[in-house]
Amino acid sequence: MQCKATGNPSPKLYWLKDAKRVDMTNPRYILNDGGDLQINNSEEDDMGKYECVAENSVGTEHSKPTVLYVKVRRVPPQFSRRPEALSEVMLGSNLTLTCVAVGSPMPYVKWRKGDQELTPDDQLPIGRNILELTNIQHSANYTCIAASTLGIIDAPAIVKVQSPTEVSISEVTATSVRLEWSYKGPEDLQYYVIQYKPKNANQNPNRNSTSIL
């Protein structure tokens, strides 16, 4: 924005925005030698009515006001990376759920387990939120929520704990027993751990393990 003034003595020039003096400590604002005001990387907060003021010992003169409009690109939140809709894990497993959202302004991203909020309101990350689950014991429904002033979106993430089904016992002897079961979980299963404890025994259970290829 341009400003020129003459006088005797030579006037000092400064700018007003909405009747308040422009804060020239802002590194985006530059007052050129001739008195022109340069605004770099304009933001929404820069919008307003600007006036150039010329001042010397004789008096003060204001320019005609100039209204600055800043066109702001607004984009509602949208997911650039959704969490897996369904994750099947073994009991006691660990799992990482990642959720990424974009928009303008950038949305904050938080996690919810059922009706329970998992992300503190004073620690809401912008754009991305990674949920680390450890020693998973139960199936649960999680929701990733992305929100800004332009809207709220969510993406469900179901974590399902797999366990053997249709367990049957056969070939029982005094020292052994045969167990059979079916399993429909991930194919990279390596083994089950079978625990047993004698009735009324007050000691840690012994453990046997069987590898399943």
Automatic annotation (TrEMBL):
EC number from the UniProt entry: 3.1.3.48
Annotated family? Belongs to the protein-tyrosine phosphatase family. Receptor class 2A subfamily.
InterPro entries, A to Z: FN3_dom (IPR003961), FN3_sf (IPR036116), Ig-like_dom (IPR007110), Ig-like_dom_sf (IPR036179), Ig-like_fold (IPR013783), Ig_I-set (IPR013098), Ig_sub (IPR003599), Ig_sub2 (IPR003598)
Annotated localization: Membrane
The scientific name of the source species is Lutzomyia longipalpis
Per the record, its GO cellular-component terms are: axon; plasma membrane
**First and last residue of the signal peptide:** none
Query: Recorded GO terms, molecular function?
Result: cell-cell adhesion mediator activity; protein tyrosine phosphatase activity
Q: What is this protein called?
A: protein-tyrosine-phosphatase
Record keyword Amino-acid biosynthesis present: no
Topology in the lipid bilayer is annotated as:
Single-pass membrane protein
The Fibronectin type-III domain is annotated at 163-213
Pfam families linked: fn3, I-set, Ig_3
Single Gene Ontology BP term? Answer: axon guidance
Assigned keywords, A-Z: Disulfide bond, Glycoprotein, Hydrolase, Immunoglobulin domain, Membrane, Protein phosphatase, Receptor, Repeat, Signal, Transmembrane, Transmembrane helix
Name the reaction it catalyses. O-phospho-L-tyrosyl-[protein] + H2O = L-tyrosyl-[protein] + phosphate
Q: What is its main location?
A: membrane
Location of the Ig-like domain: 1-68, 77-170
